Amino acid sequence: MSRRRQAVKRAIIKDAKFNSTLVSRLVNTVMDCGKKSVAQRIVYGAFDQIATKNPGSSPLDILQRAVDNAKPRLEVKARRVGGATYQVPLEVPTDRQFALALRWLVDFADARKGIPMKEALASEIIDAYQGQGNAIRKRDEVHKMAQANKAFAHFRW
Questions:
Q1: Residue 88, domain member (yes or no)
Q2: Domain span holding position 70
Q3: What is the CATH number for 118?
Q4: 27, 52, 70, 86: which could form a disulfide with 152 (CB 3.0–4.6 Å)?
Q5: DSSP assignment string, 50-64
Q6: Whole-prediction pTM value?
Q7: Contacts of 128 (CB under 8 A, 6+ apart)
Q8: Nearest CA to 117 among 49, 15, 24, 22?
Q9: pLDDT digit string (tens) for 6-43?
Q10: Is residue 142 part of a domain?
Q11: Average pLDDT over residues 66-93
């Protein structure tokens, strides 16, 4: 990996249907092997199911709240100090918070076997919206790990 310069961060194009960068990032996270139209069909199908289950509110608002609930604030990173490796708790940058939350939602939806992906994604988003489900459990595990290693916070640099 070259260390000459930092990679340029490109702006994410807004989604055509909902005009949202969050939906566009979700589509990109769901996408496998470059099949964007398949990923869009899955995400839009999940949004249709969310709309039928919660007719009072917008699926975009539900997704936003679900991602906010699943975002980790702290995580641990391995730091090597004098031959020993310490798990050092660090604050998570905003962009990585969104990336982790979306990745956890998609991965746990994919792990639900026996049901179509759009149904699994819809139920995972609704669970995160309600403050429960696998993505919230994963966030709590990451926070617990950071709390347990709080003694090594002075190795942060």
A1: yes
A2: 21-155
A3: 1.10.455.10
A4: 86
A5: HHHH-TTS-HHHHHH
A6: 0.91
A7: 66, 67, 69, 70, 105, 135, 136
A8: 49
A9: 889 899 999 999 999 999 999 999 999 999 999 999 99
A10: yes
A11: 91
